[in-house]
Amino acid sequence: MSDAAGARAVCAVCPRHCRLADGEKGFCRAREVNGGMVVCANYGRITSLALDPIEKKPIAFFEPGSKVLSVGSYGCNMRCPFCQNDAISQRGECEAAFQMATPAELADAALRLKAERGNIGLAYTYNEPLVGWEFVRDCAREVRARGMANVLVSNGCAEANVVEEIAPLIDAANIDLKGPSQEFYDWAGGDFAVVCRAIRILHLAGCHVEVTTLVVPGRNDSDADIDAIAAFIASVSPDIPLHVTRFFPRWRMADAEPTPVATVRRLAEVARLRLGRVLVGNC
Ligand code: SF4
Asked: What does pTM read for this prediction?
């Protein structure tokens, strides 16, 4: 897509709608314009690859006790000051070491680990996967062709057409709902309504969806905050699990105190008034 003057291409993947000149990278650092087209610049560029327990995603109610080969690249379209994974999420190609891998190579690796170590499939995680959604799509097709599962761990801040294209390929997802309002998302650099829409699309597509809220002291740690989050999730389905997790000092909030465990437990109790499955994390 190009803007009215035709001099810049417009990226339609997330609500930032970056307008980019040829050769320019988007806000996420993962996309760029090449020959007038916005392309996925981090395609196949792998910064992290590990066989993780699925509970680490966190996903608690899909294949519990299993392991999933987890892959990440670099880049993110949000700028949460509390980012817990900034070493790859808040970096570009010059700052994050990567190796190249094709979708078929990753799917083959996932299949080998099925026989050797009980791997169930491939998880797209660590950085924000949907800024490179074409790679997720292509990997997911290869993984499905081998009879294995696809797991998405995302901030959910992507336009509906992207989520709708990915959803049928995804078996389980954990989507962050980082705060209860656009005011919170203004601070974190995202779009509240877009994230809520992504959760709804994935659920309606039949994907197993779980949600995570990282409790950041002074930002989203009131009873009203978590009640608003739980109310939205319940409006989609009260059976969707919610992980209420503890913040540790990182990135631009390296000087902040960790969330008190008692706060996380109190907020989980508040959420349980609306939701059937609420878990605490990092406590
Ligand atoms: S995905 Fe990246 S390039 Fe595209 S609009 Fe979002 S931040 Fe900009």
From this structure: 0.96
